[in-house]
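Q: A reviewer asked whether we had any structural model of the full assembly, not just the individual parts. We don't, so I'm hoping you can provide one. Inputs are below.
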Amino acid sequence: MIRWMAWRLHRRGLLGFTVGGFVISFLYGAAFTQAAGNTAASQAAFGRSVILVAKQFAFLIPIPVHPETLGGYEQYKWLASAIVMMSIWAVLAGVGVGRGDEERGLTAEWLVSGVSRTRLLLARSAAFGLVLLVACVGSVLGIVAVAPVVHQDPNFVGEMGKALSMAAGFFACYALALLVSQLPPERQTATALSVGALVLLLVLNGIADTIDSVSWIGLVSPFHWMETTSSAAPGGRFDTAGTVGLAAVAVLCVALAVAAFQRRDIGSGLFRWGARARTTVRVASSNVMLRFPFSEGLWEQRVGLGVWAVGTLVLGALMVSVTKSMVDALSTDPALAALFQRVTPGPAYASMLALTWFGTALLLLAGYAVVQVSRWSTQDQEGRVEMLLTAPISRSRVVLERALEFAAASLVIVLSGYIGVASEAPGSGLNLDPGHLFTASALLWPFALAFGGLGVAVASRWPRIAVPFLGGFAFVSYVLGDLGPLFKFPDWAQNLSVFHLYGSPLTQPGSWTAALSMSLIFVVGFGLALVLMRSRDVSSA
Amino acid sequence: MPAAINAEALTKDYGGGRGLFDLSLQIAEGEVFGYLGPNGAGKSTTIRLLMGLIHPTQGSASILGLDSMRQSVEVKRLVGHMAGELPQFGGLRGRDIVGHFGALRGGVDPLRVKEITERLDLDLGLKYREYSTGNKRKLGILLAFMHNPRLLVLDEPSSGLDPLNQQEFFKLVREAQAGGATIFLSSHVLSEVEHVCQRVGIIRRGKLVKVARLEDLHEMHVRHVEVEFAGEPQPQIFEHLAGVENVESAHHRVTFTARGSFEPVADALAGHHVVNLASHEPSLEEIFLTYYQDQPGEART
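A: Here is a predicted structure for the entire assembly that you could use as a starting point for your response.
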């Protein structure tokens, strides 16, 4: 029973990542000949150029192995992104098992029904391990399926090896989050700590890949050990020791989490500090932030929002600090410099920053929108919206306050990124046009609002499907923005991608039409939310 | 003066026989009304309809003369609501939750908050996740009562409270009524409402099956009768009598229930050698159980 429940609780993620992974890997594979050409010579030249460019992005992605082949191209183009997305999924699942189930009362129900703590965590972990394996296999099967279409080697064994390595890596991420979740007493803090640990491991791997003298620090990161298996590309290597090591670390973390779970009380953290003497409180808080739902929402997520803001600021500054060295290295090879100029016309430093920082910022903001929608959806299902509506406020006000809350929070994140980039740029020798930098940063806001608008519309009527919907939309939008130019989709089709709508305002004049379009999505989304919220039945039951 | 609650043919049909059907009910201002029914009978659906949280399939409801859907914001200014179960507030402290909802409502007297927390012995300094079930109920009571509303809609308010706090809660209800408030109190246990209610409505399978004053229910002439004969029992002499049901016999005894006048039973006993005759009224709890149980052959709504 517990095993069945464990499977069932991950069914949406399993379905989304398995089917989504298959479809995306198939589509990227189908685009291979569009990008690399049909002849061996053109594919070889394409492979060389990809390696030269990718070396400059070693901070973000591993150096591609045989990108002139379908498997190598997919490993660089799709699986590198999939690794980041699926590791976030694994971490959130770890927090869900470690804390989320507990806050929803599921853990207590299972324990009182006679399931031991050890069995509970082991069953949940084993089920998620299997879910990960299936999803990873799905993510590479699209490559095997599309290979005959583009006349390439399916490399079945190699693809399965890569899937196995990824599953082991994600399981390690999951187990780490499960362990970290035992420390604090609540889900919110557990999420912040676990996501923070994941970002740290990602950054450590990036630093290790970029700076040879400290490459050893990458050894602590599961991302490093996932990169050491490159068997998705023909001729690539399956790192048996690395994969086994990842699995062993995962098992160790699960075992430690079980031990911690045995020691602590349900609803409490692992460590309980001595109770402070305090007087009984009989008065309501006069905190002005609690006066309105939107400011109450900001207050309640102040720690998480702070982590997002500081993380964005640091990441922005970090990316600026490595941009000059990337461009300078690129400039030493005239052929490569010419290729880079062709791919990203405009001032070199700005073009590189547009690719690195602004590309990342778009993903971060889309991710933040998904997190916010997840929060609204949870509040709705747990009865917070129902309770809010028993106070004398209208349904329209609930939606408007959500809009305000999202707009304010995303503005804080956008501003943090801008401050990080603008303050680091002069010290790093980047001579950026202040107006363009401001415009590019400012346009991130309507980009985030567009996702928020879509999310709130769905969350207002169908809270249970809001997260998979927005996550799926963000994913498809990103892939459409990426593949649209390769498949030479018409402009209107490419403009369906919000990522494409944003464009590249750091190097090209900012498109106010795009800004208007993104703002319009926000306005229409919230307008739709007003109508949908009014017409629905609000009930947590 | 408009009724505090006026429901007319109020229906919420979820399909498959679930929901609330054709509820017509008037509750006068100042009345304490108990709304009784087993789990899943439609009590919470009724409350959600009254609070404008869900849309009726047909019919309408008004609260203190205001339409519960179209004027729901105005309605909620006048109402104090306590849900059957409070949602998760995670790391927020009790004082934050009270501060937040107090600010949304406006007009909450800090002295009233202090008074209720003292009477219920509720510490607002704790985080919500640290509250026990009973303390969460106390917080719900505080949120419902703190602004002295004209109508209190309470969903199983005293379940989870210890006896002392239950008594304190009933005192709060009586004081609110004395101050002119109307109270709509939903429960699935009679003991929760019989302390304070004047009238009760019994709902089963989404339909209101009985509305009566508590004393009227007591006075319903239903008796359990036990007759002990000297010789063989004679159940057949009762089987066709008006108002007599559930005739059973064992050894020298015959038992049955008799509604209405006792005269036909007395007439039937004439000429028989009866050694003992016992008759007693069922308890209030038993009366309610007869309404809760399915009637033989009754189809699901």
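A: Points you may want to mention in the reply: Residues 163-178 of chain B form the longest helix (16 residues). Confidence is low (pLDDT under 50) at residues 296-301 of chain B.
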